[in-house]
Amino acid sequence: MSPRPLPAPGVVPPATRASRPGWRDPRLWIGIAIVAVSVVVGARVLASADDTVQVWVLADDAAQGQQLSEADLEVRRVRFADDADLDRYFTADDVLPDDLTLDRPVGAGELLPRSAVADGGGDDGVVVSVGVSPLTVPDSLVEGSQVDVYVLPGAGGGRPQADGPALTGVRVVSVAALDDSLATGSEAKVDLAVAPGDVEGFYAVLGASDTPTVRLSVVGP
């Protein structure tokens, strides 16, 4: 085989440059389509990955009968495996009842269940105020406690209360500052939610003595 002839000295072969594809080049449109599909698929993947829902949780432990506001709650993102589970709780988008009262204790960090909120935002009790000596109030008495109420005849005498409490298992709506009552030597004011049918009988027991003494016994949280 004879060798290929060498180019003449001083002769440089012309350089070949790559040309840019024009807008009619199908490769350009294929590239654009691939980018668009990637953007759409990526957005859908991100959306499906963040399927959490914002729900209300308790910031602190709350007792049965305690009335809550948004200050007592926090928002937390939670993922539910079943949409039916979500329906059991209050989401951050729900409008909370004006009188949000619990009918069972709920712990700090626990989701706010719809089942734990009393129907109508609270019970249908009549609020009755009683005065008690701060020295006889149990340390465990707080808003939302359930108490038995005993009425004892005062120094002026009167018909003593029948055996047992005058009221049983009533909810404490509010408790006045006991320290203030101790400082002034006055009675502490306690508001109770009494069933409408028990109000008249309770006042009758109070009226049977000139200066009745009220004692509270905590029977529930």
Please name the defining characteristics of this protein.
alpha+beta; 221 residues; 4 helices; five-stranded antiparallel β-sheet
Radius of gyration: 38 Å
First-last Cα distance: 108 Å
User: How much β-strand is present in the residues?
Assistant: 15-25%
Low-confidence segments, ≥5 residues, pLDDT <50?
none
Order of helices and strands: HEEEHEEEEHEHE
Anisotropy-based shape: rod-shaped
Strand order in space, largest sheet: 5-8-7-6-9
Q: Helix count?
A: 4
Q: Overall pLDDT, averaged?
A: 77
In total, the number of strands is 9
Largest sheet properties: 5 strands, antiparallel
Content-based structural category: alpha+beta
In helices, the fraction of residues equals 10-25%
Describe this structure in words.
By secondary structure, this protein is an alpha+beta fold. The chain has four helices and nine strands, in the order αβββαββββαβαβ. Strands 5-8-7-6-9 form a five-stranded antiparallel sheet. The longest helix has 24 residues, at 26-49.
Helices, strands, pairings?
Elements: H1 26-49, E1 53-58, E2 67-68, E3 73-78, H2 83-86, E4 100-101, E5 126-132, E6 146-152, E7 167-175, H3 178-184, E8 188-194, H4 196-207, E9 213-220
Antiparallel strand pairs: 1-3, 2-4, 5-8, 6-7, 6-9, 7-8
In short:
The protein has about 220 residues and is α+β, with helices and mostly antiparallel strands.
